[in-house]
Amino acid sequence: MDQYVPVLIALILGGVVALVMTFASTMLGVKTHSAVKDEPFECGNPPSGSAWGRFSVKFYLAAILFIVFDVEVVFLYPWAVVFRQLGLFGFIAMLLFVLVLVVGLVYEVKKGGLEST
Amino acid sequence: MQSFIDGLIASGVFGGLPAEAIYPAMMFLFASIVVFGFVLPLVTITIWLERRVWSRIQSRVGPNRVGPQGVLQGLADGVKNILKEDVVPDAADRPLFVFAPYLLVWGFLATFVVIPFSSALVIADLNVGILYIVAIVALSAVGVLMAGWASNNKWSLLGGIRSAAQVVSYEIPAGLALLPVVLLTGTLSTQGIIQAQGWAPWDWFLFHSPFTFIAAFAFYISALAETNRTPFDIPEAESELVAGFATEYSGFRFALFFLAEWGSLYVTGAIMAVLFLGGWQIPTGWTNNTVVLNIAQLTVFFLKAYFWVFLAMWIRATLPRIRVDQMMSLCWKYLVPLGFVNLVGTAVWMVIWPEGNTFVPYLMVVGTLALLVIFFRRVLYHLRRAKPELYFNPAI
Amino acid sequence: MDFVTFFALAIPLVVVAVMVIAHPSPVYSALFLVMTLFLLAVYFLFLNAHMVAALQIIVYAGAIMVLFLFVIMLLNLQSDTLRTQRHGLGRVAIIGGVILLAELGLLLQGSSSELAESSLPENFGTVEALGSQLFTKYLLPFEITGILLLVAVVGAVVLAKR
């Protein structure tokens, strides 16, 4: 646990620096309000309603695929670390695992899961 | 770091102070030196240098007014940003809007923590070092999404979503490209990985085998995408999305985004240097002075890391932006399969040559040098042919 | 892990966890959930489980929460429409919570507090220890996980293409 103390210190320091500077910015900066200035910037056009709306499903697909392959890559890390001790046995075990996932990747590409149209 | 402080305690610098008080105090001192003395100047100077480099590539002059050759341009921009109004749009979700830039700054500072600047200077040498970086980068996607959504602006939201989708997609090839090095060293600690390499190019993992060579560039490309650099700057494509998730931001919050962006560019270079270029390794035996040794290591490491930063500037000034679908297919159809090939290839390589092939690294160093020579000869040939008006003096 | 650090972590953890279910805006709930998972990762660090802490952040706080945020931000769920649908679930949740607490109490009765103080193996919780366990003792579950992930890919593609 001790090795994470410097991480905490660096984070606190970074937070303090960022806070002080943004605080200085709010103190020193001008403050004027007008109805037009405070509306979202959409290239000069009056904003056409709120931006919070529905989106294309392909973004979800990207996120789901990311989760699946992220879990896989994360599993590969412990394997890579102990690879020398495991020898050939570990190599074959991992080859099977990777093979199953590569089948998934090939299926996804063949089915056009990544096409954006 | 721990041993460095132990050495200082043993030499009696602190007198009779208890060790429990010295450790945090020294850590705090070192962390503040890194933040104020390294990160902030580094980022401002990198932004200035990048603008100068683009300008020279595009036959312009670039910022050269503030300070000698314009070095202080970043400082001037920072002061200007502090004096600007900090606008929060009415429609925005105020708490999230205000908080998101901090999250991004934390994200990049947190990755700085595990970078070993020299054999003694590393803030925290975690035993999950590489995995820790992967974790922090994954978290920063949340910050980008937060900024984009909280702005309640269509450009911001689109930019934030695109950026998050891009960061999470390219995390897979980046993670896969790191694995060959982990395979070779059997450790995730950044210091451990550097110690497994040597000072000479043929001892670097870049030239260990063809697979690690490809993995290095696969990682570099993925890292460019994760930091939203050209040619992957789709999330902030000016012609489509104004400034992406940063559109509604102004004042110093806007500057914080840029601090994080250029800071993570250096982090990318540093990770490349750690994993593939032998980090701070220098020839030993020529000095016994620890301080001199560490300064030499620091310089070597900085130059190696900055080489990749410079390369990113060069790429940004040269390449056009790619489309969203090209970005996605590059990731899933090329880089991810390539990552698997690299991984299996490295494993096979290790089964055949457990101690590494003795001949291939030399061959690869020679081959890379030959490629570089051919490249520069061609550039010179075309320069002679085109007879352009050249101004080689960089300081105009 | 001593008493003070435990509560210094536990109190914020419980507060943000309550905020996850108490906050009217789904986006805020998701972001509080990120914080909850992050604090849980810090807990794992205190328990010397470095690898699990890293996994917690990468997989849960990073990957899964990004998906949650995508869904929540982009579906544009209105907080008032959600509120009207809550009826009935509250009572079920209370009953479930009471049962869970009772189970926890029963479990804790049998164990002594000295259990946590027992000595750990030399490299407990490191990546090396986890790797050597995972690829020898728990190899079969590991391979089955691969198949499970394959099913997830297929399912995602099928649903998205429909």
Brief overview:
The complex is a heterotrimer of chains A (117), B (396) and C (162). Chain A is mainly α and 117 residues long. Chain A has a single domain, classed as Methane Monooxygenase Hydroxylase, Chain G, domain 1.
Q: What are the SSEs and their pairings?
A:
The complex is a heterotrimer of chains A (117), B (396) and C (162).
Chain A: H1 5-28, H2 58-81, H3 83-110
Chain B: H1 2-10, H2 19-57, H3 73-83, H4 94-112, H5 129-150, H6 154-185, H7 190-195, H8 210-226, H9 238-241, H10 251-276, H11 290-318, H12 324-352, H13 360-386
Chain C: H1 3-22, H2 26-46, H3 50-75, H4 79-84, H5 89-110, H6 127-134, H7 139-161
Helix pairs in contact in C: 1-2, 2-3
Descriptors:
heterotrimer, B: 396 residues, mainly alpha, globular, C: 162 residues, Four Helix Bundle (Hemerythrin (Met), subunit A), 2 domains, 7 helices
Write up what this structure looks like.
The complex is a heterotrimer of chains A (117), B (396) and C (162). With 117 residues, chain A is mostly helical. Chain A has a single domain (2-110), classed as Methane Monooxygenase Hydroxylase, Chain G, domain 1 (Up-down Bundle), CATH 1.20.58.1610. Chain A contains three helices and no strands. Chain A is flat and about 70 Å long. Chain B is mainly α and 396 residues long. Chain C starts with a helix and ends with a helix. Chain C is built from seven helices and no strands. The model of chain C has no long low-confidence stretch (mean pLDDT 78). In chain C, helix 2 runs antiparallel to helix 3 (50-75). Chains in contact: A-B, A-C, B-C. At the A-B interface, helix 1, helix 2 and helix 3 of A face helix 2, helix 3, helix 4, helix 5 and helix 6 of B.
